[in-house]
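Protein record
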Amino acid sequence: MIWHKYFKYEDGKLLWKYRNRDEFKNKAGQSAANRFAGKEAGNLHGAPRSATTYRQVEIFGKGYKVHRIIWEMHNGEIPDGYVVDHIDGDGLNNKIENLRIVDSLESMHNLPRQKTNKTGVVGVCWHKAANAWQARISWDGVRIDLGRYEKFEDAVNARKLAEVSFGYHQNHGRSQDEA
C-alpha cells in the first residue's frame, strides 16, 4: 500500500492527510475522512494479557499496526518472516529510531518481564522440590536448564550470562513499567 497517500510521519506520530474528492464515491465520504486530517491516526490496541499496547488504524475495513506503517514509509515493505520491534519495549514509541526489523525469534528476546513473575528476574524461579533457585533460558523454542543454585544471585548470574551468550537484547526482562 502507498502509505504516504494517507499519512504523514511527524516525530513518532502518524497523522492523517487531507484527501481529495476524487478518492471517494461521494462528498460525504470525503468529509468523514477529512475531519481527521492533521490528527494522530490510530486507536490503542492490545490483547488483554499482552504486555504491550500498540496503535492500530483501519483502512478499507482492514486493521494495520501504526509501527509497521511507519517502518514501511521509511524503509519499504517488510519481508515475510520479519516483524517491527520497538527497541525500548514501548509499543507507543513509534519514533523511527526506536524501530528495528527483526525475525520473530529475535523479537522474543526483547520482551518485558511478565506481570506474574515473582522473582523479578526472567528465567529464575524457586524449585521447591530441590530447595534451590533454578535458572532456565529458551533458545529456538527449546527450554534449556542452566542449573540449580543455593543462592539467588548465582541463579541470576547464570541466567544473565546465558542471555549474553544467546544474543538476547539488553532490554530483555525489564519491568513493564520500564517499557
User: Anything to note?
Assistant: The first strand starts at residue 7 and ends at 10. The mean pLDDT is 87.
